[in-house]
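Would you mind writing out the residues of a protein together with its fold in token form for me to study?
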Amino acid sequence: MNFKIIVDSCCDLTEELRERFNISTAPLSIDVGNKHYIDDENLDRDGLLDAMRNSSDVPKTASPGPGPFLDLYQKYENSFVVTLSKELSASYQNAVLAKELLKEEAADKFVKVFNSFSASAGETMIAYKLGELIEAGLNRDEIVEKTEKYVEEMQTLFVLDSLDNLIKAGRMGKLKGKIASFFNIKPVLGATPEGTITLFDKARGSKRAIRKLVEKIGERGENLEKKVLGIAHCNALEKAEYIKEKAAEKYNFRETIIVETAGISTVYANEGGIVLAF
């Protein structure tokens, strides 16, 4: 069968992964002040980071409408789609709406939309799982079943070096955020089963937070020897390499993948942010 993987642009990918699994992307968009960005391969990430640093406005993101998804669905017989958590974005709903529109004109085409219940590296790992299952020659139903099980079991953890966007967006009170920043408190966050964000732990200082992040892998993960660890970073390659090294010492992942954050993940994570999924 002819299978295609489609993702929204919060799925952080290397060119190697994109080419290996032939992944296509429906881009989200970002507005910071009067600057507008399309989260595609031409995005100036350094310019985006600079704009966020110099703006008091909350960065605004917009999901792809049904159109970009529908355009991609029309090209392929069987499409597997991975989106941001529907609790964080309308991307999932628009991907599903595009599927319904497709039925009206091409009922023979197959589309399965996966709500990642995550973001960033979480989407990356789901796309990676789909790619491996396709490479293994599984049929469509087997791919869906195994991927749904993977999504259900997947863990997402992250540490933010900067709380600026959380404060600007009202997700952390200004006073609490300023106190946390003053005392250098770093939250260790993660995804709930429903796809929302929750606080798992906190530490004073980035190094301690990263150590706690590595510890959380063992607390929340199972059968790690069968899994791939995905690490997404925003201008924090040294941290990502450190986590890869420490995770290799403590656990037995069969593979570890490091990717840079694209635009949407950069807005969420901000400079220095790290996102893990496994």
